[in-house]
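Field: COMPLEX_INPUT
Field: COMPONENT_COUNT = two
Field: RESIDUE_TOTAL = 227
Field: MODE = joint
Values follow.
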Amino acid sequence: NAGVTQTPKFQVLKTGQSMTLQCAQDMNHNSMYWYRQDPGMGLRLIYYSASEGTTDKGEVPNGYNVSRLNKREFSLRLESAAPSQTSVYFCASSLGAGGYGTDTQYFGPGTRLTVL
Amino acid sequence: RKEVEQDPGPFNVPEGATVAFNCTYSNSASQSFFWYRQDCRKEPKLLMSVYSSGNEDGRFTAQLNRASQYISLLIRDSKLSDSATYLCVVTHTGTASKLTFGTGTRLQVTL
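Field: COMPLEX_OUTPUT
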């Protein structure tokens, strides 16, 4: 039981390049989330998926897109990376039985992204 | 004003000391409250939920004061392994609910 896994662990991009961050969970959770963490800012929600087939914007969605591929997988795409997107990205999941925000969230190990 | 505010610290305490952190929140409609722990360069992990009546888990005690809109975390008999950043987390229901994180309070326990 791996919990929440993320790939890659580290990535360096040039401005304008695109990439997809992958996230998968094996806990049969309904809800999945993408956060970014910056010094002095705390974790901020980018997008979330309350259940398979649905996605919604969080606090800082601009410059990102997401896909809930199936119940296990939730990917985050940067279409044209900018230096302001340099951050640590965390994926999380929760059982979501009571709706978003009400269940314990389990986090993946994070992806450290640098955009030059 | 940030929605969830914490003293960033660091709090430097000797092993065996008792240390307390507070966190204030601005939205009176906040519904659920948690403390997460985050080790350096690692992911956040749930430490404990915070209930209205207060709750204890071993050396850790969490309290909620709705009237003053703050929650607290008390750590007794600090261990070196308690060194981490403690994140205060607040959720709201009835909206497109969001889990709002404070920026964290850093604790360093020393010999």
